[in-house]
Design a protein that fits this description.
Layout (H helix, E strand, L loop, with lengths): L1 H8 L2 H16 L15 E3 L2 E3 L1 H14 L10 H6 L2 H22 L5 H9 L13 H10 L4 H22 L6 H12 L1 E9 L12 H10 L1 H4 L4 E10 L11 H15 L5 E9 L2 H6 L1 H5 L10 E9 L7 H8 L8 E7 L2 E11 L6 H33 L4 H8 L3 E7 L18 H7 L16 E11 L10 H29 L5 H7 L5 E2 L15 H9 L6 E5 L5 E10 L3 H34 L2 E3 L1 H14 L1
Antiparallel strand pairs: 1-2, 1-14, 3-11, 3-13, 4-9, 4-10, 5-6, 5-8, 7-8, 12-13
Helix pairs in contact: 3-5, 5-8, 6-8, 8-22, 9-22, 10-19, 12-16
């Protein structure tokens, strides 16, 4: 039979039959057999897949909280450019791989565990602490979840937590290792030091002509001046439209009144009655009677009751704080029961007293700035099409600026990093890194593309290219003489410091005597310090030197950024006693266990990856990314 089939497959008729089968399957939508089994899914691991819809939902949820450097919501296109889409994909792939492994080993979080996690979440409970299905579904919708998506996310989270716990079971950092770490952290050291200020008046002589020529030849590569370009710039930003906002006093006051309660009024205070019961069941049984105004004496198992008035902080239980002081609370509302200590608390809200409002005059300027910025942003984006039209006509920067009422700025020649020949930084040209790249990638007289449209956009013209050049010796003679003197002064100071350290280490002199010799004052730590509590008492350049010394009495020197020399002598190295080391090691062991456990889980995941076949549909992922670029 197999021989007959093989012979048929070699015939022309069989080829035609296959063509008909392919066309038929395409007509009926059967195409996955030719795409590795993933279809439009982005990734597959085991029996698990990630669909483009599920991935898009994950991206949408991420973007609800993602913001740019100015605190504004990110678009999908911005997220794609910043690599956030790829990060989300990696995270989803990680979760999918872990769940596929857990499926294989029978370790996936069960539906019962997922339900328990949901029902025990205070966010999904009503004022009495019971699971509220309506509240649950409402919160999911507000945060961009379907119940299936949310439960899948919980399944992934619970499964990962379970696997992390498994990898850490019976994991303990060896006691000797914990003791070494404890000894390292707790070792106490003390030191004295003084500072030798830079002697800028030290007579170092005058360099000879040979010295100057030699130095010139040595530093030639550093003297080579880079190519520079003289630039004309047209910049349009939201700031250019703030004066056109046209806000009236009525506009500002209307905004203030609309947001007065939410933004310009302090926290309110509330009066409530708290009922504390011995058991939860008694507290629940009393809810209806409390709502009906029953006397405290009529409530069973009531331990005590109290009336309180004040801000949110008068309640210690965070869940009761959220319920009683939350936006959905109302007078006569009943909240709880919640366990506080050994008693179950139920609260009836009696009154709400609004907080004090900030007067309009105190926030007027803040409101004006906010509204004018919003309107300026709208005007900016409305002007972009006109700017692009002018660019399309081939108009010059000056003509565009005249049409839009924008100045064209001219700058001294700058190098590729934005610095002029005098060393002054041109910050405007560096506001958008791409601008300088284009400016140094084009010919003289050419104009860059319009760069950026996120509340600011730039265009520039290369007016002149100043070629790179090497200044001759006479141009830089005075600088070379000064550089020679600085180098000579540094050499003499280093020699003086080495001699000083040698005298101290040989016992020929003391730190106090050396300090007096240079007119300095010996300073010391107020008390011995460890690596974990050094604080800022010691000059930062000396901190690492203090703890790198191998023995007490060691002397070290370091030159600060100001050129001063700091001389340090370690006066004490006090190791932890063996008796104190054991309890200290036990105290820090949990943190070491945590770090080691995380490292072990990462190693475990590498093994999981080698065991679970993960298929990535690069074409589907690329299609998803291109859909973002074309729909924005």
């Amino acid at each position: 039979m197999l021989t007959l089939i093989r012979q048929m497959l070699r015939s022309k008729a069989a080829g035609g039959l296959f063509v008909l089968l392919i066309v038929a399957m395409a007509a009926w939508g059967v195409t996955d057999v030719f795409s590795g089994g993933l279809g439009t899914n982005l990734v597959g691991a085991g029996d698990r897949t990630l669909s483009d819809r599920a991935f898009d939902n994950a991206v949408e949820r991420e973007l609800r909280s993602a913001t740019d450097t100015r605190g504004r919501s990110l678009t999908k296109e911005q997220a794609l450019k910043q690599g956030l889409i790829d990060q989300i994909f990696q995270r989803e792939q990680f979760g999918l791989t872990i769940k596929a492994f857990a499926d294989q080993e029978g370790l996936t979080a069960t539906q019962a565990a997922i339900r328990a996690e949901i029902q025990n979440n205070p966010s999904f409970q009503d004022t009495t602490g019971l699971f509220d299905l309506v509240r649950y579904e409402s919160l999911l919708r507000q945060n961009g979840y379907t119940s299936a998506d949310f439960e899948a996310m919980l399944e992934s989270s619970l499964t990962q937590d379970r696997l992390r716990r498994l990898t850490r079971t019976a994991l303990t950092v060896p006691t000797p290792l914990a003791q070494v770490d404890a000894a390292f952290r707790a070792e106490q050291r003390d030191a004295e030091w003084f500072i030798i200020e830079t002697d800028d008046l030290m007579d170092v002589g005058t360099p000879s002509e040979d010295d100057i020529v030699a130095l010139y030849e040595e530093v030639k590569p550093n003297l080579q001046e880079p190519e520079r370009r003289r630039i004309s710039l047209l910049k349009m930003s939201t700031d250019d439209f703030k004066s056109s906002a046209g806000l009236t006093e009525d506009d500002l006051e209307t905004f203030y009144e609309a947001y007065k309660a939410d933004r310009y009024t302090g926290p309110d205070t509330r009066s409530f009655t708290a009922y504390q019961f011995i058991t939860e069941q008694a507290a629940r049984d009393a809810l209806g009677r409390i709502a009906g105004g029953a006397e405290a004496s009529a409530l069973d198992e009531l331990s005590n009751t109290m009336e309180q008035t004040g801000p949110r902080s008068v309640l210690q239980n965070e869940r009761l704080q959220d319920l009683v002081y939350g936006p959905g609370s109302a007078v006569n509302g009943i909240y709880g029961p919640q366990l506080e200590g050994a008693l179950w608390t139920v609260i009836r809200l009696e009154a709400i007293y609004p907080g004090d409002a900030t007067p309009f005059g105190q926030v007027r300027d803040e409101i004006e700035e906010e509204l004018s910025s919003e309107q300026a942003t709208e005007l900016f984006y409305a002007a972009l099409p006109r700017l692009d039209d002018l660019i399309g006509t081939g108009a010059s920067l000056e003509a565009i600026g005249l049409d839009l009422g924008l100045p064209v700025l001219s700058f001294d020649a700058v190098d590729a990093t934005g610095f002029t020949v005098s060393g002054r930084l041109n910050g405007t040209l560096r506001e958008n890194p791409e601008l300088l790249v284009q400016l140094f990638d084009r010919a003289e007289g050419s104009v860059t593309e319009r760069i950026g449209e996120d509340e600011a956009t730039w265009m520039a013209r290369i007016d002149e290219i100043v070629p790179s050049r090497l200044p001759d010796l006479d141009e830089v003679r005075s600088d070379l003489i000064e550089a020679w003197k600085i180098r000579r002064r540094t050499t003499l100071q280093d020699e003086r410091t080495e001699a000083l350290i040698s005298r101290l280490e040989n016992g020929e002199t003391t730190l106090q005597e050396e300090a007096e010799r240079v007119g300095a004052t010996v300073q010391s730590l107020s008390r011995p310090r460890s690596r974990t509590n050094i604080e800022a008492e010691l000059p930062p350049p000396l901190i690492s030197r203090l703890f790198s010394a191998r023995e007490a009495g060691a002397v070290q020197a370091v030159t600060s950024t100001t050129g001063a020399t700091l001389i340090l002598k370690v006066t004490l190295i006090d190791a932890v006693s063996p008796e104190a080391l054991a309890p200290m090691a036990r105290q820090i062991a949990p943190s070491l266990d945590e770090g080691l456990g995380e490292d072990l889980f990462q190693a475990f995941f590498l093994d999981v990856q080698s065991e679970i076949d993960v298929d990535i549909n690069d074409k589907a992922l690329d299609l998803y990314k291109r859909s973002i670029e074309t729909t924005q």
